Every structure is written in structure tokens, then in C-alpha cells.
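User: Predict structure, ligand guanosine-5'-monophosphate.
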Amino acid sequence: MNFKDYVRVIPDFPQPGIRFKDITTLLKDGPAYRAAIDEIRKLVAHHQIDLIAGPEARGFVIGAPLAYALGVGFVPIRKSGKLPGETIEADYALEYGKDKLSMHKDAIAPGQKVLIADDLLATGGTIQTSINLVRQLGGDVIGAAFLIELSYLQGRDKLDGLDVVSLIQY
Ligand code: 5GP
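Assistant: Predicted complex:
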């Protein structure tokens, strides 16, 4: 399956000059969505994984079904102020804009092997911040999995030493 055919590129969203990769066109196609998650599962299947962590909101759409397919737990990484329990927070900068991400303090037990999942790797800022949060909680980050990688932004260079996998590259 050529997954790229299912992604819609929208020019000048959310700002002039950005060519936004819209994954809703892939998600609404049942066989394509299932096949994409299954392909990502195969790319990470050789790892021992205890938990998947995914940043909101599109990280949930990739991370949660991946966790289900692997039979492991899923922990959410959320924007500040959304999680009800005790949290830790970290600042992050996006390809456009900036924000704070948070996790529950008890989301990860020390030493657990964590794979981080998101829809798209751009500059790597979101994933770097996610990695920092998981490591602060004592988690052992083994890699990061994406539906899409914008290779020309070289985000993977910031994720030194980790196994970075992606299904679609631009
Ligand atoms: P980074 O932090 O790597 O620069 O940006 C990646 C984050 O921004 C991801 O969480 C992703 O959801 C979002 N993002 C940035 N550009 C795009 C895009 O073109 N399409 C989609 N679907 N998400 C994007």
C-alpha cells in the first residue's frame, strides 16, 4: 500500500508557507489506517516494549492503536493543565509556536522500556520534550515511531542513538 497517497497536503496551513500534511484522509479509510498501524508495529516488533507514550492529540491516534496491537499500555503526554493527577511539565518549541507538555508523575515505573509515538516528525521538538519527560520519570526510551517524517527538517538528528522509524517520508 502506498500510504503517501492517503495523506492530503494543505498549503499555507496553519500559517503561510507551511505545507501541512493532513492525516485525516488516511485515518478515515479503515483498511489504510489498520495497515499503517500494522506496518509501524512490524517496524518496532523486534524491541522489548513495556509502554507506548504519545503526545496529544495526533500522537494518541497513532500511539493508542499501536499499543493495542502490541498488547502494551499507553500513556498520554498532554498539554499543560489537562491531566487530573500530579504532573511534571516541560517547555517545548514547535515548527510553529510553543507550548508546555506534561505527564502524570506515576505514568511510568523506573526502568520501563518506552516507545514514543506521534503522527509526524518535523523539527523533533515535540519528541525531544516527550523524551525528556519520560526520562525524568525514570523511563528507558528505546525509540520513536511516526507515521510521517519530514526528512528535510532533520529532526532525527536530535534523537541521537534512538531507533527512529517512520512509514512515510517527505
Ligand atoms: P516537531 O515538534 O517535530 O517540529 O513537530 C511535530 C509535531 O507538530 C507533531 O506533534 C505533529 O502533530 C505536529 N505537526 C507539525 N507539522 C505537521 C503537519 O504538517 N501535519 C501534521 N499532521 N502534524 C504536524
